[in-house]
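User: Here's a protein and a ligand (magnesium ion). What would the complex look like?
Assistant: Let me lay out the input and then the predicted complex.
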Amino acid sequence: MTNFATIDQVDVKNKRVLLRADLNVPMKDGKVEDATRIERLAPTIAELADRGGRIVVLSHFGRPKGKPDPKESLKPLVPALQRALGNRAVHFAGDCIGPEAERPVEALKPGEILLLENTRFHKGEEANDPEFAKALAALGDLYVNDAFSAAHRAHASTEGVAHLLPAYAGRLMQAELEALGRALARPEHPVAAIVGGAKVSTKLDLLQHLLGKVDFLIIGGAMANTLLLAEGIGVGNSLAEHDMVDVAGELLRNTNTQGRVIVLPIDAVVALELKTGVATRTVAVDHVPPHQMILDIGPKTVAAIETRLRECRTLVWNGPMGAFEIEPFDRGTVAVARTVAQLTRAGKLVSIAGGGDTVAALAAAGVIGDMTYVSTAGGAFLEWLEGRTLPGVKALERP
Ligand code: 3PG
Ligand code: MG
C-alpha cells in the first residue's frame, strides 16, 4: 500500500480545506439519479466541517472540454449534497478560480461548506496546467483528496494541486485504498477474480495483471466466448472477437504454465437474439447451435463457480456474467452474486467489487450491502486492476 497521510494527521480548525470530491454522478432532468458517490463522500465533508474546517469542495462533472457549459454545471447537485449531509447548508460559487471563487471562500466561517463550479470549465484542469493548479491552491490551506474514482486522471484538481498544499487522503479515498489493498496487494489466499464484460481486447491488461495475482480467474460475459474460440470451441452466432483469438490462446497457455486456474463457462443460456421474451435454451458450450448466441452462463457453470468460491478467502469482481440488463439473462450474474453475498455474510469470503456495470448488476441482485466493499470507481477501479499507478493516489504519497 502506498504511504499517505489521512485527515487524522491534521488539525483543520479554522483552516480552508480544499476538498477534491467526485460529484460526477448520473443526472436526469436536473435530478441526481444515483446518489451513491455523494452519500459515500458526505461523511468526510461532515467530519471536516464538525472539526471546524472551512470546507471548499472541488469536482469535475461530465466532459465540458475546457469551457463553461450550463448543462454541465454542478449547481443542480447542491440539493442532493445538502440531503446527504443531513440538510446542512451548502453554498455555491459560480467559478472554481478567481474572484468569483475567492470572495465566497473568504466569507466562509468554520464549519461552513462551499461547492465550487465544475473544474472542467477551464482548460487548465485536464491539461494539469501549473498556473491553474496554483489558482486552485490559492483557495486552500490544505488539500484533501476524496475522489478515488477520479484518481486515474492526472488533472490539476486531482494531481497538480496535491504538490502545492499539504495533502491528505479523505475517508472515502482511505476506505477505497484499504479495500483494494486487501483484494490484491496483501490478500488472504486463495484469491479468485471474476471478470466479465464484452471484450477481451479492452480487458487484456487487466486479465494479464490478475493472472499474476490470483489463484482462480473466473471469466464470463461475451469475453468468455473469445476464450472458448481459442480453445477450439465454436460459439455459434455469439458476440466474440475473432481477431483476438490468438491473444486469448496465449493467455490460456500462460495460465497453465503459471499454475493458475482459469474457469470458463461449461454451459450457456442461448437464444436467437438479445431480446426480452425470446425463447432460450441451455446447452453445453460445445453444443451452441450455429444461429444461436450465448447470452448468459448456465446452471452448471454457476455451480462450478460456486465450488471455486467456496475454496477461496478473497474475491475481486469486475463485470457481469451475461447480458444482465435483459431478463432472463441476468440469472447467472444474480446467482453468483447471491452466493458471494452469502459467503461474505458468513465471514468466509472478503469480497470486493467495482466498475459501473458490476455495481448495477450487484444492485439488481440486491446484494450491495452484503459485499465487503463496493468501490465507487469505474475507470479508476479498472486501471487499478490493471496494476497501473493512479496519479491522484501517487500524488498523495509521502516520501
Ligand atoms: C468517473 O465517473 O469515472 C470519473 O468521475 C472520471 O470521469 P472521466 O472518465 O470523465 O474522467
Ligand atoms: Mg467515466
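Summary: The chain has 14 helices and 17 strands.
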